[in-house]
What does this fold into?
Amino acid sequence: MGGVDKVTAGIDLFRNKRVASVIRFSGLFGIALLVFAVVLLVFGKNPIRAYVDIFSATLGSSYGFSEVLVKMIPLALTALAVAIPSRIWLINVGGEGQLFIGALFATWGAINFSNLPAWLFLPWISILGFLGGGLWASISGFLRAKGWASETISTLLMNYVAILLVNFFVFGPWKDPESANYPQSIPFPDAAILPSFFGSRVHLGAVLAIVGLILFHFVLSRTRWGLEMRAIGINQEAARRNGISTYRYIILLMFIGGGMAGLAGMGEVSAIHGQLRPSLSPGLGYTGFLISWMAMGNPLGIVAAAFLISVITAGGDILQMTHRIPGAAVHILMALVLFVVLARRAGKVGGK
It folds into this structure.
């Protein structure tokens, strides 16, 4: 009976910690909403009315809810791009650039392989999107594994290089001659467009995001690779002395993480835009970084945080249209959410 009591006590402790974490986060998020209400008052707006409009427009209709899901897809994938390398304390700030390179590779495939059979076309451009983001991130992984450069700095700087590369092709060799002065590639063929569900804009990328999250959880919790990653995360030097190749894991996890962001880019050009544009991403990679931090790398936490941020961003569009609130106000709320994350982390550190 003593063993059963210990197990029961352990379960109760786990539940209590989980409940306390939810209460703490809810309280801090409530503070963020309260401070944002003050910001709305400064703009001369009714915060109660604004919040009612946000949640009724995003969660109160099937169209609004589907648009939240559309925004969630790239956010969940770019959050995975951060969460996967973070298991061994790698900080990938390059989700934005990896997304752009994934979109670039997918566009190359859509433009140059239109003669492929329809059943092979979509898998091919998906693979290209994954490879593009993965190879771009692997450059930083290689530099980090060799000890030549911090992955934090290199991934951040490579974001700008990736965006400039996309601009080069869109303004140059891939520019659609029929688009007048607007820079964009030629439209994708119908076979390269990701299918959508139920007459909405929710596309097949949602399945890719769900599969990625499930595989991430499974590998971490059920495989030897997950055990080795946890060992590296706890003590890299001890793991290396026990025969675990930290060099290999650094490059591999950066590649897989970058590939997730590349899939997000492929989904945006294939399902949302239908062609490559310089305005491909409104900072999706950076927002994914915030989401991964909020979730602390937990797959379910990524889903919850991506949903929350998607509601905020979709609600921001509503506020701009119905209340004439500047778009910058949404960035203020996002910044307040970031403070919530930092306060949560600080509270955990202080409680230890």
Notes: Confidence is low (pLDDT under 50) at residues 6-11.
